[in-house]
Fold each of these.
Amino acid sequence: MEYRYLGKTGLQISALSLGSWVTFGNQISDDVAEALMVKAYDNGVNFFDNAELYADGKSEIVMGNILKKQGWRRDTWLVSSKVYWGGKLPNQYGLSRKHVIEACHAALKRLQVDYLDLYYCHRPDKNTPIEETVAAMTDLIRQGKVLYWGTSEWSAEAIREAYEVAKRNYLVAPVVEQPQYNMFHRERVEVEYRRLYAGIGMGTTIWSPLASGILTGKYSQGIPTDSRMQVSELQWLRDFMASEEGQKRIQKARELQSLAQELGTTLPKLAIAWCLKNPNVSSVILGATKVPQLEENLDALNVVSLLSNEVMEKIETILGNKPKFPAFG
Ligand code: NDP
């Protein structure tokens, strides 16, 4: 395993980590969840990602039980939660001081831990002043309930504002953003955030490196019955796959799969290695429903060295989506 510093913090995070969205407490049994965590940990993964939203809290319960059962030393792993979607009633969602603090307490209980290593604001909340959220996060950190806090899918402008509010008021600034990043989804990480890496020292833990499985190439032959595309609440994903853009991506995945074969590797490994090659990515959060999938994906670390300039150019030609940097950049 390779470890990277999370932005300018002193925290070392495994370049590949494991997340639980759609899988834990939902698509897979608790035994499979345990086998995945053990496989990940045994291969040096030190970060397990979670959220209050995932399986309505069940995902954190499953993960907490596994962490407790395995008894791994607390200083060998990091666990996260994310706050935003805790329920539908007033104050059960959003980033008010009340919800940020109550959601943290609930996550600590479900995960059976004394503190969260990383705590993310799962989305921006335009109805809560940034000052209120930054102050709530600061209090949790000063109470020892959270070690580092960050954001997920916030605009560069909002992240910068949170940082400046913190610096102006002697509060604790966010240090990590969790954006989607994969071969099809590049603009935010490669363009919008580019001044934040050196500027405020922001790290990133990126999600959906395989674009929910499209970048495995397995959808070329239709939808496998045991895939996430069959999960009832993911109708939006099925709709997307059926759309013109979805079909275009499946075709591009076919072309990328041929390139992967030429290189003597597989498309999932190539797609994950491509994310790892970006030095502004601190950790690529993997998802898996089966241990062999995770084994394959962990091997992506050995594929990064195949990504020569020539191979990267071939990938760009297939993708045709290289971001154009703004002139003032
Ligand atoms: P991916 O895009 O990598 O999709 C993972 C899914 O693809 C697996 O669950 C599996 O689904 C399939 N798959 C994975 N590897 C293989 C393989 N080698 N061969 C064939 N199929 C494979 O990542 P996720 O979308 O799961 O995101 C990863 C994590 O990121 C999440 O668990 C979560 O922690 C985080 N996340 C954060 C978000 C945020 O808003 N902050 C949003 C979304 C995710 P199947 O077997 O069902 O096809």
Amino acid sequence: MSERTLAIIKPDAVKKHAIGDIINRYEKAGLKPVAMKLMRMSKPVAEGFYAVHKARPFFDSLCTFMSSGPAVVLVLQGENAIKKNRELMGATDPAKADAGTIRKAHGTNIEFNAVHGSDSPDTATFEIGYFFPGMEIFS
Ligand code: ADP
Ligand code: MG
């Protein structure tokens, strides 16, 4: 089933000049960008995006990181896009990520881990709507 997921190339990966490599991986895996922008989130915007984590000890640090510089925010579309993107990303902690994954290649540690990907259909719907109005998404 073709579906959509929200991906973010986080500020650490943008600083490391990994935008091109990461988008190449999405396209080669059949995940087509149908919306995309380069943006620096304000801290409140990062806090709203990660609201589900607000009780976690790393929440403030995570939101400071996510608002520290420009990030690429994309909607990817393809067969099983949510699961496929999570597989491309690898484990949250790059040290535990499989060889060949984005986080293995570009992540630094469990916080600065290069990319975000929605983890379920409900999350994807919330996250896509958080950054993109319907008229900015191509099909
Ligand atoms: P994922 O991005 O793999 O879905 P989570 O949703 O659990 O992981 O966490 C969201 C983000 O919070 C992670 O991508 C990472 O940047 C950060 N994070 C997660 N766990 C930790 C931790 N233990 N310490 C610091 N930052 C963390
Ligand atoms: Mg998550």
